[in-house]
Amino acid sequence: MTDFTMEKDTEGVATITWDVAGKSMNVMSFAGLRELDGLIDAALADPAVKGIVITSGKADSFAGGMDLNLLGRMKDTAGDDPAQSLFESVMQIHTLLRKVERAGMDPKTQKGGKPIAAVLPGTALGIGLELPLATHRIFAAANPRARIGFPEILVGIFPGAGGTTRLMRKLGAMAAAPFLLEGKLVAPERARSAGLIDEVCDDPLTAARDWVLAATDADLVKPWDRKGYRMPGGAPYHPSGYMTFVGASAMVNGRTKGALPAPKALLSAAYEGALVDFDTALRIEARWFTNILLNPSSGAMIRSLFVNKQALEKGAMRPENIPDRRISRLGVVGAGMMGAGIALVAARAGIDVVLIDRDQAAAERGRAHAETYLSDGVKRGKTTPAQRDATLARITPATDPAQLRDCDLVIEAVFEDMAVKTGILREIGAHIGKDCILATNTSTLPIGDLAQASTAPERFIGIHFFSPVERMALVEIIKGRETGVAALASALDFVRQIRKTPITVNDARFFYANRCIIPYINEGLRMVCEGTVLPLIDHAAEQLGFPVGPIRLTDETSIALAAQIARATRAAAGGADPENPADDLIFWMEEQGRLGRKAGAGFFDYDDKGKRQGYWSGLAARYPAAETQPALAEMQDRLILAQVLEAVRALEAGVLEDIREGDVGAVLGWGFAPWSGGPFSWIDITGPREVARRADRLAAQHGPRFACPPLLREMAGSGARFYDRFAAEPRSA
Asked: Which residues, other chains included, contact 425 with Cβ-Cβ below 8 Å and sequence gap of 6+?
């Protein structure tokens, strides 16, 4: 079985076709690289070949990048000197792509080479763009669904097969930054206007062949190989280039707070590479790429954000032997922000939606939310007017629950109150068909209690969306005690249909995500009560890699909601918890009318447009700053262990059945330090013995909430790691 094949025509054009069998999108392997290397050598050595076209056998894509599973295996089999071994492997790729780029030309005269063009039928990502960038001209099909770019930074690495060096020299630091540092992906026409590719046309293969046959020696020499080349925007030693690189460094550190290693390594490779000749720059890029591959963060991010995420999206936790069930008609009851968001994402996936609320005006407002969002997408070029109108046509606002009778799935999304939800669920149950799955979008209320309002608890399930629904990738599916496998399979099929990532958990108070988020918020609020200044708390979290600190997160999610959860938790526990002063702080803020961002006042002050104006100074009257502020490391340990220990307890209790879901859910659901890959990966990186030691120290200083869970204690004693013990076999409830 081969990944690359070559055919020669009578005009002297050799067409190399990349087509990996059994995959919907090509991915590069080292076997494939060797095949490509051999074909390039053969074509360059063949006097009958005048030029080469490299294309894909896939109708809608060129390539999805490197096989990221292979990168993990490269590290595992790197031998006694892994750095040298990995560096040499990366340099083999650079050598091949440089061979493509030089195409057999004389190194002194830069003549006599054979033109090589790339043809992209569709999506080209990662090395699927690095290879075309090494060719002499890139032709893309006019495929609006295609995406072109470098997403590597999003999974903890960066373009290390020449993409960083070539794009920097092709576009300059300023223009290359969004693609390299943000992982921006664009459609072909926008890629052409940005300078990533050269031509977009309806028949790129014919256009590429014509160009190859007409190309001259001058067409083959890359700008950086020409005498007198200057980097667009200026090199680092040029005044304008200096400011660009300083600005890029400030931007990266402002966004990541220094917590993510890959952006820093990319910047180093780009900066240092811009000071030297092209071939030396490739070696510098390879060294920094090797550095990142050896960093445990990259392996954890690839595992969680690529391997595990893909596995969950493809149904790793779906019950077997249950036929796939696509949802054709969805009912959503409750047209507030959550219900409207659910209706929007379902309609965008081609599902007809009936959006129910108590009065028509409220239902219409829910549809209007979708219209506003889609119209903004039209302005930004993310969608077309026709696509917007087609999506809106699928949403029917209504008040009559009888319209739910033909739905395959109905999701209740009303106010988070047990009495309100159970009343609505009973009303829905009277109108839906016997095969309809009934779901609740609750974030905290036990599914088992809500299921009592259903006449068929085996067809009742929790589907917890995160806000805002249209942006958040995670959906938490909660199984009740009586939830059947058909309901679970249907819920997972629906989440896949709307192109989101599911995790499946068992019923328990706060499920998994909120079970871990609430201790994080509470720990930050406890620090406020101890006299820690607010900026220090949020900045400590941000420097750990969390996108939002606990104080700001409380404002964003609503202090009113926090007060509601605190009261419900106290009621369930049979009274107040004297060990949790965070509740008293929340209740006091509620009394002051400072209910969070939506109310225009919380731990922050806000202007009329809802923009943060700084932390509220009035808090100091009740909670004055302590004379001595805590050490940064101490605060960070408290903030991260508050979540990590709860994740371990969720696994112990059977709320989580698989650590993959725990890690993916944490990163996608609330932004748990993405560099770590999630709480279980963080424990593995830090070491269970060290985590247990820190837990013991915090428990002695701050109380039993930091008590080391028995499972972690056991693993600390044995030296085992979570992904050694639990990755192969999912943990059953």
From this structure: 412, 438, 440, 450, 453, 454
Query: DSSP class of residue 596?
Result: B
pLDDT of residue 540: 96
Q: Across residues 269-279, what is the average pLDDT?
A: 95
Please give the Cα distance from 288 to 136 (Å, whole number). 26
**pLDDT at residue 328, rounded to an integer:** 96
- Per residue in 115-174, pLDDT (tens digit) is 999 999 999 999 999 999 999 999 999 998 899 999 999 989 999 999 999 999 999 999
Instruction: Provide φ and ψ at 413, rounded to 5°.
Output: -140, 50
Q: Which helix (H) or strand (E) holds 354?
A: strand 352-356
Rounded Cα distance, 492 and 508, in Å:
19
Residue 303 per-residue DSSP state: I
Helix (H, G, I), strand (E, B) or coil at 489: helix
Residue 727 DSSP SS3: coil
Question: DSSP secondary-structure letter at 472?
Answer: -
Comparing C-alpha atoms, which of 312, 307, 296, 156 is closest to residue 681?
296
Handedness of CA 160, 161, 162, 164 (dihedral sign): negative
Q: Which of 733, 234, 719, 674 is nearest to 478 (CA)?
A: 733
The amino acid at residue 43 is A
Model pTM? Answer: 0.90
3-state class of 16 per DSSP?
Answer: strand
SS3 category, 298? helix
Q: Check: CB of residue 150 under 8 Å from CB of residue 51.
A: no
Q: How far does Cα 441 stand from its chain's mean position?
A: 22
Encoding tokens for residue 474?
């995670």
Structure tokens at 543: 């420097």
Number of residues written out for the chain: 733
Q: What tokens appear for 264 in the block? A: 């820093």
Q: How many CA atoms are closer than 13 Å to the CA of 487, on its beta-carbon side?
A: 25
Tokens representing residue 635 in the block? 């605060």
Q: What is the mean pLDDT of residues 66-71?
A: 73
Are the beta carbons of 134 and 98 closer than 8 angstroms? yes
Task: Name the DSSP letter for residue 656.
Answer: B
Q: Are 31 and 68 in contact (CB under 8 A)?
A: no
What span, in angstroms and rounded, lies between the C-alpha atoms of 397 and 365? 9
Secondary structure of 257-269 in the HEC alphabet? CCCCHHHHHHHHH
Of residues 642, 654, 639, 655, the one with CA closest to residue 510: 655
- Average pLDDT in the 96-122 region? 96
Are 454 and 428 contacting, i.e. CB atoms less than 8 angstroms apart?
no
SS3 state of residue 282: helix
What CA–CA distance (Å, rounded) separates 733 from 713?
Answer: 21
Task: Spell out the residues 6+ positions from residue 88 whose beta carbon is closer than 8 angstroms to its own.
Answer: none
Q: Taking 60 as the threshold, does the pLDDT of residue 23 lie above it? A: yes
Q: What are phi and psi of 414, to 5 degrees?
A: -100, -175
> Using an 8 Å Cβ cutoff, are 115 and 136 in contact?
yes
Residues 502 and 678: their CA atoms lie apart, in Å, by 15
Nearest to 517 by CA among 469, 565, 470: 565
Q: Judge contact between 544 and 484, C-beta under 8 A.
A: no
Cβ contact 41:14 at 8 Å? no
Closest C-alpha among 325, 222, 339 to residue 281: 222
Structure tokens at 644: 């990590």
